[in-house]
Design goal:
78 residues; alpha+beta; 3-stranded antiparallel β-sheet; two-stranded antiparallel ribbon; globular
Length: 78
């Protein structure tokens, strides 16, 4: 699936996202999160790993929208 994050197009699949996050330890969740496998990750952490971009370059909403389109469960912060 093609999605735009930080103004750049990315072709992502759910399995690619799962594979990229398998060896990544989840950071503490303080805002929006996404469930990948049996773990919950902050959406900004997932975005940084998947896109290899600085977290300041994209919004949590962009990553959340992409993760929802891929079929992942996303939770709002707070």
């Amino acid at each position: 699936m093609r999605c735009i994050i930080a103004g750049y197009p990315f072709d992502l699949t759910a399995s690619e996202v799962e594979q990229a996050m398998t060896s990544v330890k989840p950071e503490p969740i303080t805002g929006e999160s996404v469930v990948i496998g049996r773990r919950s990750y902050p959406v900004k952490q997932v975005g940084a790993v998947v896109t290899r971009q600085d977290r300041r370059d994209f919004t949590a909403a962009e990553v959340t929208r992409a993760m929802k389109r891929l079929g992942f469960t996303c939770r709002s912060g707070g």
